[in-house]
Structure formats: structure tokens, C-alpha cells
Write a structure and sequence with these properties.
- The complex is a heterodimer of chains A (about 120) and B (about 140).
- Chain A contains six helices and no strands.
- Chain A has helices at about 1-30, 35-45, 50-75, 75-80, 85-95, 105-120.
- The mean pLDDT of chain A is about 85.
- By secondary structure, chain A is an all-alpha fold.
- In chain B, helix 1 packs antiparallel against helix 3.
- Chain B starts with a helix and ends in a 10-residue tail after the last helix.
- Classes of the chains: A mainly alpha (about 120), B mainly alpha (about 140).
- At the A-B interface, helix 3, helix 4 and helix 6 of A face helix 1, helix 5 and helix 6 of B.
Chain lengths: ~120, ~140
């Protein structure tokens, strides 16, 4: 049980932090307008020179292996719904670290996700 | 620009592929890890043993392939469709994971858990129906 909690925590927190880092890296590059393969390749080459990108990729790798660990102990119909908590972590992280404004409507959605995850925990048997 | 009907068809086809591949990938990863069994790490050698088991499991590789296909479909559809349209559509993935888990892996799912999954879908749907950009572009 203790291990599971740690793994679920890592899936949500490392996954969301990873996405926040990748977002930050991509925002320093700027909006992509040109979707030709050669231009996309150039965007990728620039992206991997941003340290935030590597931190993000490392964190997302931690989240992936934590997911594998959690799936070895728990049912997928339990693990995947719980990972929806990333919407809560993402809203919080987006506001605190990226200066995004999170609307009341979005917080309402996050609240519903949290209620849903609680129900999934309660219906564990 | 293609016709509006064609664009709609293309968008829905790719969202359908996302909802098909993503959850199937999760279910396949789950099947692979269940075959390996609960992981017990007591000494460094265990990590190597488990790592080998994971990397030689066909279900894990199938799962990774399916997730990769999900990701490609996701990136492609985002190249023309709005994120605020695609993201809530992806909320159905949570219900689909539960359905696959029930029918393919025969996981027992209590009514309370079904209700929880439903509420999560609704929450994700609402999160997605908000503005996709609130920061000023530098």
C-alpha cells in the first residue's frame, strides 16, 4: 500500500512537472507555424538545446516507469483514473510556475476530477 | 484548405484513433506487468532482473507501440484542430480504459468505481472547455 501510494504520487507529480518543463521549453522556442518535416526537425533540434526539455523528458521517464510499477500491483481500471489527478496538479502548476490564469470553470472541472478519483478509491473492492 | 466536411471527418477519424490506441496501450502495459507479477526490489540485482523481464515482454512493447501511435495521432490532429476541442474529446479515454479493462482483462469494477470514472470524464470535459491560452506570447 505504501509503495503504491509513492508510485501513484510519482506518476502524477513527476508526469505533470515533466509536462510543465516541456511546456516551458517549447514556449521559449515560440509558436510553431510551419509544419513541413524539415522545419519540424529544426524545431526539435532547437528544443533539445533547452535544458528545461531534458529535465522534462527525465521526469516523464520517471512517471512512465512508475506507471509500469503501479500496473504490476494494481488494476489498470484503478491506476489510469487516478492519474487524472494530473489535471489538478497541472492547473496548480500552470498557475504557480507558468503564470497561467486558471478560470473558475477550469477549477470546477478539476474539482469534479478529484471527486471522481475519490469515488474510484472508495470503489476499490 | 480542404472542405469543411472533409476536415471534420479527418478530425473525428484521428480522435477515434486516439481513443482507440491510448487506452489499448494502457491495457496492454497492464497485461504485460501482470504477467511479470508484483515487483519486489530488495537488492540491486533485482532491478536488472525486473528490467530484463520488462524489456522482453511482448505486451509491454505492444503497449509502448500503441501509446506511440496515440501520440502521433494526437500531434497530427493538434496541427489543425483546436486543443480546446481535442483535449475534452480525449476525456472519453478514461471510460474506454475501464471498458477494455472489464471486457479484455476481466477486472472487477464496482458500481462506485464506474461512477467515479464517469465523474472524472465529466470533469476533464469541463477542464477542456476553457480558454487554451491565458498568457501573453513574448
Amino acid at each position: 500500500m505504501a509503495w503504491e501510494t509513492v508510485l501513484l504520487f510519482l506518476i502524477v507529480c513527476a508526469g505533470t512537472s515533466g509536462e510543465l518543463c516541456v511546456t516551458r521549453a517549447m514556449k521559449t522556442i515560440g509558436e510553431v507555424h510551419d509544419f513541413r518535416p524539415s522545419s519540424l526537425l529544426r524545431v526539435m533540434l532547437r528544443a533539445i538545446q533547452v535544458p528545461w526539455m531534458w529535465l522534462g523528458i527525465a521526469l516523464m521517464a520517471v512517471a512512465f516507469f512508475s506507471l509500469l510499477g503501479a500496473l504490476s500491483m494494481e488494476n489498470v481500471s484503478f491506476v489510469v483514473p487516478v492519474t487524472a489527478l494530473s489535471y489538478a496538479a497541472g492547473a496548480l502548476g500552470g498557475q504557480v510556475f507558468l503564470g497561467e490564469r486558471v478560470s473558475r470553470r477550469r477549477w470546477l472541472g478539476v474539482l469534479l476530477v478529484c471527486i471522481g478519483v475519490t469515488l474510484v478509491f472508495l470503489g476499490r473492492k | 484548405m480542404t472542405s469543411s466536411a472533409g476536415l471534420h471527418l479527418k478530425t473525428f477519424a484521428l480522435i477515434f484513433l486516439m481513443i482507440l490506441f491510448g487506452p489499448l496501450g494502457n491495457v496492454s502495459l497492464s497485461k504485460g506487468m501482470k504477467t511479470i507479477g508484483a515487483i519486489s526490489l530488495h537488492q540491486p540485482a533485482d532491478l536488472l532482473r525486473v528490467g530484463t523481464q520488462v524489456l522482453t515482454s511482448p505486451f509491454i512493447w505492444l503497449g509502448i507501440l500503441l501509446q506511440l501511435m496515440f501520440f502521433v495521432a494526437y500531434l497530427l490532429v493538434l496541427s489543425w484542430a483546436d486543443y480546446s476541442f481535442v483535449q475534452p474529446a480525449g476525456s472519453f479515454a478514461y471510460a474506454v480504459v475501464a471498458l477494455w479493462a472489464y471486457f479484455l482483462l476481466h477486472e472487477p469494477i464496482s458500481p462506485v468505481r464506474w461512477a467515479g470514472v464517469g465523474v472524472i470524464c465529466l470533469g476533464v470535459l469541463i477542464v477542456g472547455h476553457t480558454s487554451p491560452r491565458t498568457t501573453e506570447q513574448k
